[in-house]
Write a structure and sequence with these properties.
356 residues, alpha+beta, 27% helix
């Protein structure tokens, strides 16, 4: 497969979508990206790391911007190959990865080939295994093996954001509350202690919980606390002696993980609680010069990112980071995944203005 990086980024998006790249099977698309950059962007230094492709300018500019996008998708769901519907501003490109996030990848690849002399030095990171468990994420491997490639003054992750800059991201924490009980036959239930019934109190606290709404750099972050699963039970005639309530907490980036955990322990005081998954958030950092330039190029619009994305990895390195890409994130991972083609071109032009 060959990619034309100088083509309309919509056509480039379609070509990327039609290249199978479910997580763990990115070799073909990574090779295509590598060969296209080496042949069509000779001004870039290009290296391969596993199934990730890295490229950068070395112009000696006073600042560096990192553009990062993952090449993998979730499994196919009857939404390949790509197809187009409509015309003009109402034209849509359908297919796996159009939103998450081959539209963003196409924008970055097009700019890599067509902007040989940007005003900022630019690093392009096209990485693997974002859609699976964090331990496999290609950015983690790159950080371990080639950390200098992730350095910069601003990171832009091409996750879908409806073509609006979404700054920072909220942290996410998953905890388990384990409720003990005592087994008994249901015919003699008074001799036991029902662990599932004991969930009533933490569930009441959840139902009455009022999440924080936080303003940071003029952006509004809405926290959340939700039960996501309950497990327990032995048999149809046994009083259960154990039950587990799983709760997900989305916390604003002004809280670090330790503060978020302290908060949950206060909410569920009196219950045994253990943290089973954690990803810290990322402050928006819009006051940084490069970030302010990007917001200006986008018409002064920015919003808070309520979900978690890889911007947090860059924020942990002390860099301001934003999400900016074409596509509606609510369509990601759905069979109906599609992107407005005008939005792909809009994001391209905003970034071209910012980098030129």
């Amino acid at each position: 497969m060959s990619l034309d990086l100088h083509a309309d980024p919509v056509d480039l998006t379609a070509a990327l979508v039609d290249t199978f790249s479910v997580s763990g099977a990115e070799a073909e698309i990574a090779t295509a990206v590598q060969e296209a950059l080496q042949a069509q962007a000779p001004h870039l230094e290009v290296v391969r790391n596993g199934d990730a492709v890295l490229a950068r300018t070395n112009l000696g500019r006073g600042s560096r911007v990192v553009l990062a996008g993952h090449l993998d998708t979730v499994p196919e769901n009857g939404n390949l190959p790509s197809r187009r519907e409509g015309t003009g501003d109402e034209e849509f490109l359908h297919g796996l990865g159009t939103v998450d996030m081959k539209g963003g990848d196409a924008v970055f690849l097009h700019l890599a080939a067509t902007l040989p002399s940007p005003k900022h030095d630019v690093t392009f990171i096209f990485y693997d295994n974002e859609e699976v468990e964090a331990v496999k994420n290609g950015l983690g491997r790159i950080e371990r093996e080639l950390p200098e490639w992730l350095a910069g003054d601003l990171a832009i992750v091409g996750e879908p954001s409806n073509g609006v800059i979404e700054a920072g991201c909220q942290g996410t924490m998953r905890v388990e509350l384990r409720l003990p009980g005592k087994r008994a036959h249901t015919a003699r239930a008074w001799m036991g202690e029902n662990a599932i019934h004991a969930l009533a109190e933490p569930l009441r606290r959840l139902a009455e919980y009022t999440p924080r709404i936080v303003d940071i750099d003029g952006l509004t972050y809405r926290e959340g606390l939700q039960a996501t699963s309950i497990s327990g039970g032995v048999a149809g005639n046994v009083v259960p002696d154990a039950a587990v309530l799983t709760v997900n907490h989305r916390f604003a980036p002004d809280r670090d993980p330790a503060a978020a955990e302290r908060h949950l322990r206060e909410v569920f005081d009196g219950f045994a609680l253990s943290v089973v998954d954690l990803s810290p958030g990322a402050l928006p950092g819009l006051s940084a010069p490069a970030a302010a330039e990007l917001v200006a190029a986008a018409g002064g619009r920015a919003a808070a990112k309520l979900g978690w994305t890889d911007v947090a990895r860059f924020a942990a390195r002390g860099m301001p980071a934003v999400n900016f890409g074409p596509g509606n994130p609510t369509l990601a991972h759905t069979k109906q995944e599609n992107v407005r083609t005008a939005e792909i071109r809009q994001v391209t032009e905003v970034l071209r203005k910012f980098l030129s």
